[in-house]
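Subject: for your reference before the review

Hello V.,

The reviewers asked for a structural picture of the protein, and I figured it would be easier to keep everything in one thread rather than splitting it across files. Below is the amino acid sequence we used in the manuscript, unchanged from the supplementary table.
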Amino acid sequence: MAKISFLFTMGYLASGLSILFLSQVVTKSVYSTAATHNSSTIDAGMHLLVKENKQTPIQFSSKTDFEHESTDLIANVLYRKPSNLYNLMQPNGAYSINADWERQQANKWYIETQKYSEEAIIGGLVKNNPQAIQAGFKMFDWGFAHQANDGSFFLTGDRFHSTSFFVEAVAHALLVIQQSPGSKQYAYQVAKYKPLLHRAARWMILPNVWKNGIRRNKPYAHRRYLVATALGLTGKLTGDEELIKYARKSIQDGLSLQHPDGVNPEKGGYDSSYQMAGVMFAQRWVTYFPNDSLSQRVTAMIERALSWEQTRILPTGEIIAQGNTRTAGQEKRRNGNAKLVDPRTVLRAFAYWGSVTGNQKWEENAQKIAKFYYKIP
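And here is what came back from the structure prediction:
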């Protein structure tokens, strides 16, 4: 198995949220070679990665997650108009297909659809827009109103996976609130939602629930990082070490799946959209758990994954969908529309990592995507 040496610099402030500069030489292994990858391609990719890591040490800023979310391209592209972050919400907080379900225009509701509360709240904090923040809380309220006594959202479709999305969204939003200028103003809401969130996360690790959920997640690499971040951030927020233990299991599973060329596989192939969904969740893990022994390997995974993703971006900024296993029109979203590449997720992952590392090349990729999809000059 090929080995890669690179410089990894990381430290941690007492607050548990800021990352300082610390030099450490780390040697890590590359995982699972897919049968579809020929050795010459792998060797070329590995040579390039080793060369880049020798020349460009990874350096991390001292910013908090809230500050990364406030970085220019995220704040002024993705959060540019806060009202757009909740425009599919009904007055009672039901979002999109869940509103259709209430009107008996859909057969199922999905708790994951309430995850858009996360962007509404964080975007509202970044843009100082109380209306967006309150809309996010309404979406939380609708979701938790459908929570069963055991912590589950019993009637939701796709119970484990759908719940993991909502748990991640709530945990992330509450942690960002605590770092923001609105921390005191919204302390009541944080205290209100923490026990409800904790109960949902604890349901996820019930033996039979966990076993069945992990089995269903098997074909999808990005779900490892989603589950890890959902449980890890909830554990961080509530002080529940058992949740973090399960999160680490999911991280280790995800790391074992990455191909040497940087692909995190989806349904036996690659997908330029879901690749970045997994990266986005993994980035949050590194931000909140910089001292965890797995975080060095997660950082290496992210760098490889982003390097592969660069090959899927045209000079114009368009993201290539050809060859994707899921978002080239093969699958449908919960609302019945075809799944296509999500430029928001791809842009976010590049911009966020650019903010974390200060590496201009990641920022440049985000800028190209912003110009193509959002007409940002």
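For the response letter, the relevant points are probably these. The chain is about 55% helix and 5% strand. The chain has one domain: 65-374.

Happy to draft the paragraph if you're swamped.

O.
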